[in-house]
Amino acid sequence: MKKAIVASIALFICISSWSQKLTKPDDFLTNDFHKERRELVRDKMPDNSVAVFFANPVRNRANDVNYVYHQDPNFYYLTGHREPHAVLLLFKDKQKANGSSFNELIFVRQHDALREMYDGARLGKEGAVKELDFKLAFEGPDFAEMNIDFSKFDKVLFYDFEDDVRNTSEEADLYDLIETFKEKVGYGKDAMAIETEPKSSNLDTETLDNIMRQLRGIKTADEIDLLKKAIDISTLGQKEVMKALEPGMSETEIQGLHEFIFKKYQAEYEGYPSIVGAGHNGCVLHYIDNYKPEIEDGELILMDLGAEYHGYTADVTRTIPVNGKFTKEQKLIYDLVYEAQEAGKEACKAGASFSSVYQATANVVNNGLVELGLYKSTSDKDMVNPETGRNRYYPHGCCHHIGLDVHDKGEYAALEENMVITIEPGIYIPAGSPCDEKWWDIPVRIEDDYLVTKEGCELLSDLAPRKSDEIEALMTEKSIFNDLDLPSLDEK
Q1: How do residues 138-178 score in pLDDT, each as one tens digit?
Q2: CATH code: domain of residue 199
């Protein structure tokens, strides 16, 4: 009877696996992309070195429920593998063992018929060969048994550990893989072992990140296509919410409308926790509570959300009047931020520095706030908040890479062609600020995504209007959500 049950489970897994293969979207990155990325890493590695990449940990939500798994971006970039409990080894030079040569090894989660019945089919080593196109693939337990002499390499490249991995009962889980690696390389009981013996150790926790920044900061055509899809989905969400918004809605409801659009277009995740802040909440730069029960007539609402499509995330912010019409003061601040963003766009081109783009936006903001009377002058004394040490009303930078992370890996010296970055100036005037009360609780951020070109930059997030008059005009249009009339829970 037991054998029959196991056989039935195995049959179920085979059917499920085949079904998943049939229904998987066909626009993921190809195996050729991931293989090319591995070759580029190998080209940049030091002589006689090995690079070791681990999958992301499984994150616990509460009790026996975990968060939806999200792969480590570097690991996904190099393999396309989306399952936990895995490790990748890339060798600079060809290695030989048992009469065969190789320059990469992947160890993936082993099959478990019972767990796969609950959680879904696992790729396994056969799938890693067939679906990920690795020549040599093994299961996790093989990592401990395999005799890899790391001492023969001049450099063992890896990211240092954060001690945030749970030790589960599963054999060769990520915790076990890391502990096995530490034993094999002589890492010691903690990360300080690297620092205490710098002359005798071949362990290197810095070079690998330098390599990945160089590669991931410049996007391929395939990556740009996925980013454009994520950006289009995000801006369509912004556009539809502009039409649907009205006083009395909750921040959570508005977040839900955005994320419904994300799911409608098959975006698997949000690229980061959604920010929906009305009034004073919009002055909190990374406000993610989104819990205000009723947004108020006359407030601005700042909506910073990005869809993640096949691993690549957009990052788009719009700030709009809840009632569809900017007040005089709101419009003055909004138009100033828009002008600053346009100045940043003009400065954005291959060869320019990131700091020059920021400075272009800051000049517009600071001079404009002097004209409006919020600063006495553009001297540091007038502009700097003594409690934070930052510009009082424009306290953040304006540009970052986007890609597999919302703050993606990349170099931050000079802009290069095919970088995809944000330009996001903002002005935030919380209540109690040292200015006329008519300006209080006005938060404005306009954030868009740009592709850097030789001549300048291409605005990718133009489906959602940015000009104040265009926003007001759009907010008079009917939304698909206007006819959504759910019963009140209090009336049942």
Answers
A1: 999 999 999 999 999 999 999 999 989 999 999 999 999 99
A2: 3.40.350.10
Interatomic CA distance for residues 483 and 318, integer angstroms: 24
Do residue 273 and residue 403 come from a single domain?
yes
Distance CA 53, CA 108 (A): 12
447 carries an active-site annotation: yes
Residue 342 sits at φ, ψ, to 5 deg, of: -65, -35
The answer on 346 and 480 residing in a single domain is: yes
Q: Are 288 and 333 in contact (CB under 8 A)?
A: no
Q: Is 304 part of the annotated catalytic residue set?
A: yes
Per-residue buried b or exposed e for 329-360, using 16+ beta carbons within 10 Å of the residue's own CB: ebbbbbbbbbebbbbbbebbbbebebbebbeb
Tens-digit pLDDT profile for residues 341-358: 999 999 999 999 999 999
Task: From 90, 127, 134, select the one nearest 109 (Cα to Cα).
Answer: 127
Residue 38 annotated among the catalytic residues of the structure: no
Selecting among 76, 428, 450, 466, the annotated active-site residue is 428
Q: How, if at all, do strands 49-54 and 155-158 pair?
A: parallel
